Amino acid sequence: MVDDHPMIIEGYQMTLVATKKPHQHLDIDIAHDCDMAFELIKKASIKQETSYDVCFFDISLPASKDGLITSGEDLAILTRDYLPEARIIILTMFNESFRILNIIRSIDPEGLLIKSDLTSSELAEAFQHILNNPPYYSSTVNSFLNKTITSKIYLDDTNRKILHLLSQGIKTRSLIEHIDLSLSAIEKRKKQLKLQFDVEDGRDETLLKEAREKGFL
């Protein structure tokens, strides 16, 4: 279990120990930052008999000292290489569809839980479900996925990123610092987005409002 807040990990542990099945035995290692976690992952990959069955990663973590591992997302990607049999559970405060879809695409975790959705009973249910029949996504994740799947609007990764950055308060003229496109190309994509979302007044605020209502933010 990797989280930089010891009390949160303590709560996870207490819940899982209290709700485990009679035949289950839990040995839990803990890390509070990327360096500690990566050392445990590497050791587990060498000693296959003590490899991890499940890895819990918070997304927001103190980066490694060399700056190469900056988040739980990076750790999960490394875990796929070092411990391919391990089931990965991502826990995060991020509840934006852009981040959620990126996590699913880059990691394809067996569990994706939004902390604001999480109760002790849901954590216990999710853990058992992931052991037996993954994946398990919490309600916010399922809501985003259902909206985007049933929507007639299709957005590629670049357009999703434009929406996400605009929603973070990034001005259009500054988007070229985050997206490898010219300003004119970005402006064309914004016009396309406003057509897709039926934005009649041409305002960015209206575009973001429509995108949120349709589950794209």
Describe the structure concisely.
The chain has 217 residues and is α/β, with parallel strands linked by helices.
List segments where confidence is low: pLDDT < 50 over at least 5 consecutive residues: none
Report the structural category.
Answer: alpha/beta
Mean pLDDT: 91
Q: What's the count of strands?
A: 4
Features:
single chain, 217 residues, four-stranded parallel sheet, 2 domains, Rossmann fold, 50% helix, alpha/beta
Commentary on this structure:
This protein has 217 residues and is α/β, with parallel strands linked by helices. The chain folds into two domains: 6-147, Response regulator (Rossmann fold), CATH 3.40.50; 151-213. Helix content is 50%, strand content 8%. It contains nine helices and four strands, in the order H-H-E-H-E-H-E-H-E-H-H-H-H. The chain has helices at residues 6-19, 34-46, 72-82, 97-107, 120-132, 139-150, 157-167, 183-196, 204-213; strands at residues 54-58, 87-92, 111-114, 136-137. It has a four-stranded parallel beta sheet. The radius of gyration is 20 Å and the shape is elongated. The mean pLDDT is 91.
List the helices and strands and how they pair.
Layout: H1 6-19, H2 34-46, E1 54-58, H3 72-82, E2 87-92, H4 97-107, E3 111-114, H5 120-132, E4 136-137, H6 139-150, H7 157-167, H8 183-196, H9 204-213
